[in-house]
Structures are given as C-alpha cells and as structure tokens.
Amino acid sequence: MNTAMSIGRPTDRPSAQPGRFQPQQPVETPLVQLLRPDGTLTSDPDFAPTLSAGQVAEMLRDMTLIRRFDTEGTALQRKGQLSLWAPLLGQEAIQVGVHAALGQHDHVFPSHREHGLAMLMGLPVERLLGIFTGQETGDWDADEVRFHHLNMVIGGHTLHGVGYAMAQQRDRQADAAADDGVSLIIHGDGAISEGDVNEAYIFAAAYQAPAVFLCVNNQWAISEPVERQSIVPLYQRAWGFGIPSVRVDGNDVLAVHAAMQWALDRARNGEGPSFIEAFTYRVGAHTTSDDPTKYRSKEETADWQIKDPLSRTETWLRSEGAWDDAQQAHLDQEAEAFGAQVRSAVNNVTTPRFEEIFDRVYAEPTPDLIAQRAQVLREVAAL
Length: 383
Ligand SMILES: Cc1ncc(C[n+]2csc(CCOP(=O)(O)OP(=O)(O)O)c2C)c(N)n1
Ligand SMILES: [Mg+2]
Known about the structure:
Distance between the termini: 66 Å
Helix content: 40-55%
Strand content: 5-15%
Bound molecules: thiamine diphosphate, magnesium ion
Largest sheet: 6 strands, parallel
C-alpha cells in the first residue's frame, strides 16, 4: 500500500483492474436536475417530473410562505423576541419537495434547519418559535405530527431515525396490516463527519432498514467549507456502506421531489436505505449569531442567489401559463398576512410546567421517573 492510499486518498498507482484501488469516478459529478436556474425544463436519464403545473403552483406557495416564516424568524430574533434563529434562506425547495413526496405514515427525523418542513407537517408555529425562545421541550406527539424534535446535537438523531425505521420494518414483519411508513433522516454536509452518522449508515445497510438519508449539502458547516469534510462528492460516501445514492439539485423542487419519491418507494418496497445529497447553498448566516462575511466571499453568495429555487419555479409556471401577476399579487398578500400571524404567534409561546418534562419520556412512567418527579416537585416547593 503506498502512502497516498494509507491516508485514504485516491491513488495514482496504475491498476489492470478498474475499481481495485479506487471506485471508478465519473469525470463529472452527475446532478439530477429537471428545472434549470433560468426556469426552463431539462431532462434526466433516470428521473422525470411527475407533478402537474397546478401541484407545482401549490409548491411555489409553500416555498413563499416558508421564506416568509424564515424572514420573520430572523426579524423576531433581531427584536429580541427569539434567542436565536437558524435561517433556511435558499433551501426552501428541499423542504417543499420532500413534503410533497412523503407518504401519510412516514416519519421525519430532522436536523436543525427544517422549520419549513415542520410547518408543512402541521407543527404549530408557536411551538417552533418556542424552540428558539428556549421554552419548548419538544415533546409534541411525534406519532401524530410524524415530525420529530429538531436536532441540535449534530448527527445524533440519525441513529434514532434508523432505529425507528428498523422498528417500522419489524412492525410489518409481525403484522401484515401495519402501516407502510418509512423514515426520512435529514442531516447536513457537516454532520456527515460525525461518528453517529456513519454508524447510522452501517445499521441501515446491515438491516436493510426502510430509511432514506437526505444530506442537505449547503456547502458550509458554520465556517467550515464542505471540501474540508470530504474529498469525494458526499453522495459517493454512501457507496462504501452499500447504500445507493444520487446527488440532486436542491434548488430544483421538481428534481428533489422526483428523487425523494424514488428513495421513499425503495424503502417502502423493502429495497433498503437510499441516500440523497441535495446540493444547495446556505444563503443566510449559519444562525443569527454568525457573520458569514468573515469567512466567505460576496461573489460566492451572489453566484448562488442566481440559482434561487422560488424564481425558477415561478418562471417555469409562467411559461406554462399556470401563473400570472394576479396570482402572484394574491400570494404576496397571503404571505403578508402569514407574516403577521407569525409575529403574533411568538406571544403565544408558553413555558411548560416544570413537572411536564417527566410526562412523556415513556408511554407509561417508570417507578424511577415517578420518584424523580416527586423529588423535583418537593425541591421546587422548598425553594
Ligand atoms: C455534536 C455537535 N458538535 C458540534 C456542534 C456545533 N454545531 C452546530 S451546527 C454545526 C454545523 C453543522 O453543519 P451541517 O451539518 O452542514 O448543517 P448546517 O448547519 O449547514 O445546516 C456545528 C458544528 C453541535 N451542535 N453538535
Ligand atoms: Mg451545511
């Protein structure tokens, strides 16, 4: 083994057999794209759009409302009504494309930037805002909402998601009438370097769990560029675990939807896990505590703004005759009203009763928990 190989870099040692020293790398990284940045359709050898213009118009609406939610989140933090906000600007198409592909029993294990998806899945806005005021314990009924707690411990939730998928698999083995739900696990480009995440891939592959990994590659993990996380394109990492994968244009709502449909179908049909790398860009700061001008150029951000997911969808819909100025004006008004709703929702965030943290740890409280709860209440009363 030569030195280059021992540190995991592709070797230049000549080999008679392709694939012996390194996987056969495509000359270019193939990207699933159905809608170009200029709003014209393109084709892909493996994926085709399955949505009507009317459905895409609904998705434009969802993306617009999510963007508004995000803008309001940042403004509420600036006004001191939230402690922190993690902007999702530029990543709207991923959350909307995913939502449109999800089945009615599928569960989502999110990372920390999926506020839009949470909203679409029916989590009340005030509960989401409560996470960023520090008052929310995140113990909503995940069985009902199917959107699990936003995860702040990078990568930790991927193991929970795979565990849940394995349970879904076992439920179906035990009971043919069990629902057909599968698990979608969302993590970032930075998370891919975490041990937990790699263990999650191993379990998912070993047990052929009905799990879909969605890696949101927004090019940055706070100030760390993706190139430092991996010298191969992220979707190729999955190959080493035996997980089929594709890279999709994350700013193309049609492509995200089509790829997600493929991966969810595979999981549902018992074909095991898949991995989708959604190639996008974090246009805003990492959080409201971050200043990205300190570590990346304005030109880089401007290049990505041209690839905006909303404007390309609107352009395409207009070219199809499925969108006009009146519809846009109506949507702008709706977004305005929704913004006001978000600003008022922050006043409805409630502080949980102290003892509530014990209430939903298990379906039935254990004797230990009951004792701990009683002890806490005694200690609080004595303060
Ligand atoms: C285990 C752990 N390590 C470090 C952090 C600090 N941290 C918060 S977000 C983040 C970067 C995450 O990057 P990525 O996975 O690409 O997600 P993105 O923020 O870009 O959406 C880090 C290092 C953390 N929250 N948890
Ligand atoms: Mg990232």
